[in-house]
Each structure stands twice: as C-alpha cells, then as structure tokens.
C-alpha cells in the first residue's frame, strides 16, 4: 500500500511540475505556451548528448542542460516573445506552435538521436528503499524531493526577490508594468538631476558666503587699522 502511495505521489509531482511551467508562462504572458513540451525535450536530449558524447557525469550534465535551457528560454523571450507583448493571444499561440515545430524538427535531424528512443542513465537506477516491507524506488523519492525543492524556491523567489515581485506585477498587467517601469526610470533620472543641481547650487552659495566673509573680515581689519592710525596721530598731536 505504501509503495502505491509513493508511486502515485511521484506521478502527481511530475504533472505538478509540468503544470507549474504552464501556470508561470500563462501568468506572465496571459497565454498558453504550446512549445513547453518541446523545450523540455530539448533539455532532456541535451543532457543525453552531454553524458553519451562528451562523457559528463549525470549531475554535471543535468545542471549544464538546465542552465543552457534557461539561456535558450531567455533568448526566445527577448527576441521572439517580447516584441509581440500586448498583441492578441493568438499571435503568441502561433509563435509558440512554430517554436515547437522548429525544436522538434531540429532534434529529429540529429543522427542516431532524434529518431530513436533513449534512456538517460542515472546513478541511482534500480536502487530501492525498503520501509516496513514496502519497496520504494529511489526514482520516486528523487521526483518528490525535487518537486518540494522547486516549489520552495519559487515561493521564496516570488515572495521576496525583486525578480519575483516584478513577475507578479507583470502577471497583473503587462503594459501597465512596462509603463510603470519607464516612469520609475524617468523619475529616478529627474531626482538624480535635481540632486546634481542642488549640489552645485549649495557649492555656489558656500563660495559666495566664503567670499563675503573674507571681504567683511578684510574690511574690519582695514577699519581697525584706520582707527589705530587716528589714535596715533591724536597722541602725537597732544
């Protein structure tokens, strides 16, 4: 019974991670990305190539594939998705469909990779954990643990980081967020210029005050010298 429970939880975690990807994209762009499955496929085949062709270890290959896929996603967002933000949802849907077909075609063109079924070898393959007579696969435990870590990371990012807060603002209104960001940048520039002009004005006033004080001090000394000279002359006359 326990084995079936962990198996069901593991399967649900896989669907939950896929749903997280759909939700994040939908909240940021207000549309569904039909290229998500193909992008996941690109990451999986990337890890497979790194382990089989370049001899990378499993952990290093996974980290490298995730970083490369994040870079690819960033480039696609900057060059393909962002220029059509604010347009109809149909435009983004068609773009993501096109990206999916392109990714699928590129993978199919790779010799001995795209047309065959492959398995990514993991170091814990076939290992099990026996708990109370139930046999729990390490694969299930890794999926459950990874889902918990990803969920905690996303919670902390959206709750406390600037990037997460900006993404939450974008999910409310894309155009309003971009306009607000531009206004904030303009306001900061204005404040910086005000501070610069204020500093120059203060420096000019301080220079004027110092000049006035020097002139007043010089006049005072001249007056004292004149009074002393008059006193001496009067003494001589007496």
Main traits of this protein?
mainly alpha; two-stranded antiparallel ribbon; disordered C terminus
Note down, in words, how this protein is organized.
By secondary structure, this protein is mainly alpha-helical. Among the domains are: about 30-120; about 175-238. Helix content is about 80%, strand content about 5%. The protein contains seven helices and two strands, in the order H-H-H-H-E-E-H-H-H. It has helices spanning about 1-30, 35-50, 60-80, 90-110, 140-160, 160-170, 175-235; strands at about 130, 135. A two-stranded antiparallel sheet has the order 1-2. A hairpin with a 2-residue loop joins strand 1 (about 130) and strand 2. Helix 2 packs parallel to helix 4 (about 90-110) and helix 6 packs across helix 7 (about 175-235). The radius of gyration is 35 Å and the shape is extended.
Shape: extended
Structural class: mainly alpha
Question: Termini, distance in Å?
Answer: 128 Å
Arrangement of strands in the largest sheet:
1-2
Radius of gyration: 35 Å
Listing every helix as H and every strand as E from the N terminus to the C terminus, the arrangement reads HHHHEEHHH
Mean pLDDT: 76
Q: Number of helix segments? A: 7
* Helix proportion: over 70%
Strand residue content: under 5%
- Number-wise, the strands total 2
Low-pLDDT residue intervals, each spanning 5 or more residues: 222-238
The largest sheet is: 2 strands, antiparallel
Summarize the structure.
The chain has helices spanning 2-29, 36-52, 58-81, 89-108, 138-160, 162-172, 174-237, and strands at 128-131, 134-137. With 238 residues, it is mostly helical.
């Amino acid at each position: 019974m326990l084995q079936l429970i962990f198996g069901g939880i593991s399967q649900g975690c896989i669907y939950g991670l896929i749903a997280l990807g759909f939700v994040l994209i939908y909240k940021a762009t207000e549309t569904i990305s039909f290229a998500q499955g193909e992008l996941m496929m690109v990451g999986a085949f990337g890890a497979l190539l790194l382990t089989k062709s370049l001899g990378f270890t499993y952990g290093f290959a996974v980290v490298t594939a995730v970083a490369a896929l994040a870079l690819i996603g960033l480039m696609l967002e900057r060059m393909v998705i962002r220029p059509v933000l604010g347009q109809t949802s149909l435009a983004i849907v068609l773009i993501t469909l096109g990206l999916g077909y392109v990714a699928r075609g590129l993978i199919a063109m790779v010799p001995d990779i795209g047309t065959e079924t492959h398995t990514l070898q993991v170091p814990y393959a076939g290992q099990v954990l026996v708990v109370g007579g139930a046999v729990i696969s390490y694969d299930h435990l890794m999926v459950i643990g990874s889902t918990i870590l990803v969920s905690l990371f996303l919670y902390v990012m959206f709750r406390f980081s600037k990037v997460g807060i900006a993404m939450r603002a974008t999910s409310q209104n894309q155009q309003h967020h971009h306009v607000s960001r531009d206004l904030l940048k303009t306001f900061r520039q204005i404040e910086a210029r005000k501070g610069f002009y204020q500093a120059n004005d203060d420096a000019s006033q301080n220079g004027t005050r110092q000049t006035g004080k020097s002139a007043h001090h010089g006049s005072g000394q001249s007056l004292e010298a004149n009074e002393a000279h008059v006193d001496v002359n009067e003494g001589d006359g007496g």
